[in-house]
Write a structure and sequence with these properties.
The protein has helices at about 10-20, 35-50, 65-75. The protein is mainly α. It contains 3 helices and no strands. The mean pLDDT is about 75. The chain has one domain (about 10-20, about 30-75). Helix content is about 45%, strand content about 0%. The chain is globular.
Length: about 80
């Protein structure tokens, strides 16, 4: 988490407010999400940098497998 792009991550305080509203949690209908916070951090990174999905840093997920398909579902 020392990489410079981590400055775009959402804060713990913000995550505590958002987390209860996301699907994919244990005990909630549907599948279990791999990591909702990582996904949100990836979206925030894309929005703040203006970079394309293919330039997503590897520690924020594999853009081919996780980011783009989910974002198309949301939008």
């Amino acid at each position: 988490m020392n990489a410079s792009h981590r400055r775009h991550d959402i804060s713990d305080r913000t995550w505590k407010l958002l987390e209860p509203h996301f699907p994919g949690r244990e005990g909630v209908w549907g599948g279990i999400a791999k990591d909702n916070r990582l996904f949100i951090n990836a979206i925030v990174w894309i929005l703040r940098t203006g970079a394309p999905w293919r330039d997503l840093p590897p520690d924020l997920g594999d853009w081919k497998k996780e980011g783009a398909p989910e974002i198309r579902t949301v939008c």
